[in-house]
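call fold(seq) -> tokens
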Amino acid sequence: MTQRLNAYAILIVAATVVGVAALPWISFRTIYLGLSWNGFGAENRTPSADEVVDVSPAGPGWFLLAACLIAALAAASTLIARTRVYARPALWVAAGCALIATAIPITVLVNPEWYAGEVMTQIGGTALPLRDFLRVQLVSSAVGLLILLAVLCAITATLTPGRKSDTA
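ret:
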């Protein structure tokens, strides 16, 4: 029962991480005509925004999406009887991927210029600190959710019985 609940929790946390990556990580809406970029590097403009920005961030959020997809597949393998023999190694791989993916939002928090690239130069705001436009609470929540995802995957992997030869 606990294993099933953990699998559902992994699915919920993975979906939440993807949702957080889809929200704007950098937003110039307060000063620059409604421009913002999410964790995937997708630009969001308000109708009043000019077409002067031709650059967008690299979008490292795709690594978060990959880690969440791996975790979701590992969690699904614990729920499907035929794939349970692969669940334990898949959950360990998912835990490792979630921990590695945690480096992305941490790097964005420490060095927002790494994420933004040439965006500040393109909008002419090189004198403005990019950290003022970074949505720190949102990116920090991505860090926490990815750590939670890694912990849930690791706990579920320890609860998942291995192959018959592993237990003998």
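Residues 2-43+55-161 form one domain.
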